[in-house]
Design brief:
CATH class: Alpha Beta
Structural class: alpha+beta
Mean pLDDT: 94
CATH superfamily: Exopolyphosphatase. Domain 2
CATH architecture: 2-Layer Sandwich
Helix content: 40-55%
Number of domains: 1
Number of helices: 5
Distance between the termini: 11 Å
Radius of gyration: 15 Å
Shape: globular
Strand order of the largest sheet: 4-7-6-5
Order of helices and strands: EEEHHEHEEHHE
Strand content: 15-25%
Length: about 150
């Protein structure tokens, strides 16, 4: 279970329905990451790269601790709003956001960051949105999740 809050993020991990096995809290969040790394709005490519390095450093140690074949879920409204800007599947009252669709959304943000007018897309141009998407991307990419279920 991934949660991206304003000032921190966490991943709760369990191997079955009986409860929580591990909880990892990260010093990254939508507002904190935006505040710490993004001076401009939208952020510059260099600002995004710096943020990516820090988020990777926070997330990467979990790579060997997450059980292969684990599923990723969230209850986050921010991630739900992010998913609704992409192509997604709805299955039994949850949204399934595939990593490839999330990557397409990140590429749309990157195009705006590198100069495409923001008016040519419907994605939010807030730095907190950029930070949330960045955290989601790094978690999915570096921890090997092919999709995320959003309840």
């Amino acid at each position: 279970m991934l949660h991206v809050d304003d000032e921190y993020s966490f991943i709760a991990h369990g191997t079955d329905s009986t409860g929580l096995n591990s909880l990892w809290v990260f010093d990254i969040g939508s507002e904190k990451t935006a505040r710490d790394f993004f001076i401009h709005n939208p952020p510059t490519p260099a600002e995004v790269e710096n943020a990516i390095q820090v988020v990777e450093d926070e997330v990467m140690p979990l790579h060997k601790l997450i059980t292969t074949g684990s599923s990723l879920y969230t209850l986050d409204a921010g991630i739900r709003e992010t998913a609704q800007l992409t192509v997604f599947a709805e299955h039994e009252q949850k949204i399934i956001l595939e990593r490839a669709d999330m990557e397409q959304l990140f590429n749309r943000l990157a195009a705006i960051i590198t100069g495409r007018p923001a008016s040519q897309d419907i994605i939010p141009t807030t730095n907190s949105f950029a930070a949330t998407l960045l955290v989601l991307r790094e978690v999915m990419h570096h921890l090997g999740f092919l999709d995320i279920g959003i309840f």
